[in-house]
Amino acid sequence: MPAEARAIVGSRVRQHLKPGRTPSLAVNAFTVSSALGTGCAAHREAIRVRRSGLRRNDFTTEPLTTWIGRVSGLESEPLPPRFQEWDCRNNRLAWLALQQDDFIDAVKRARDRYGADRIAVLLGTSTSSIGATEEAYRRLGPAGEFPADLQRPIIHTAHSLGAFVQKALGLTGFSATITTACSSSAKVFAQAERFLRSGVADAAVVGGVDSLCNSVLFGFNSLELISDEPCRPFDIDRRGISIGEAGGFALLERDGPGPWLLGYGESSDAHHMSSPHPDGIGARLAIEDALARSGLDADEVGYINLHGTASARNDEVEARVIADLFPATTRASSTKGWSGHALGAAGFLEAAVTLLAIEAGVVPGNLNAARLDPACGPQLCLDNAPLARPVALSQSFGFGGSNCVLAFGAERAA
Question: Does the predicted model carry a pTM greater than 0.85?
């Protein structure tokens, strides 16, 4: 970005009214499942050995040359009989994720502490159960009706995920499904903080689940955003995104052992339906707000998990924003080369990876990239590296400029 343009953008950001500090929240349990495996241990190991979960497309009903991050086994594992009303790929992925890392037991203990009606369920998704609706339309009856086995209205709604998870966990409090494209399951952390601060809930189960479906894969292909090879975020020769699927959940409380959600920043630049603002104004505002709410300076951040989709324009804009705002010692990478872009679940998947990085003291490198785009600064880290400071950001920038940046730390903010 030319110096004059940077000055204009900087002036706009400085004129923005910065928020005050918000209370930290303890992340007292979390779990994640993706193409890297089920549960946190599988993700730790994949990061340690630098193993990608991407594979050639074997999902779509018609041929499509691309690579995907697919979770194995969902086709053969229906939901337990008591949950048959909700059975579909997306809710199967949610159920698989709930079974990992003793997460259900952690929620049971919280339910005993607070009551079933005092734990909010706030989940992000971009497609919910649309795969089941696709199948229903492929199998329409002679009068245009859905087949009998798919005449279950709840799985054809955006709130299918939230309704199922609330039922599965035995909770009765406030429940919401948030859909803001790729920032959906990052924004659930921000909403949870507001709920707990205002007294609407005493704890919150937050998370995100998005599963593969034809609408997404062929839809992104029609936008010419799909790569025909494993995605290469921030590489000068990147060719587009690899779609993945993921599910994960966290339990947020006002107190506990942590790690900690230190703050968050949100913005909506509304520049274009599918492209970021060319000067990264929305991204900058979200980063600045996350730092302000956390009480952090840029040089206190040890790692940034970048949105980094491997699309040409998004990566260029994000790289320049990071180069402008953070010192050379900050480490940054995209982990979509490991898992693919999980869309509405990407925010949570990458928040979980960020928490695992803090826990292990290791920055995951920018997998698959060989030659970095000249827009990138010294912050971009190709190989795994030690984490110098146990404070990290996780960035999610959705279509339409719906942005969210989360700040996490090993310790509660002072």
Answer: yes
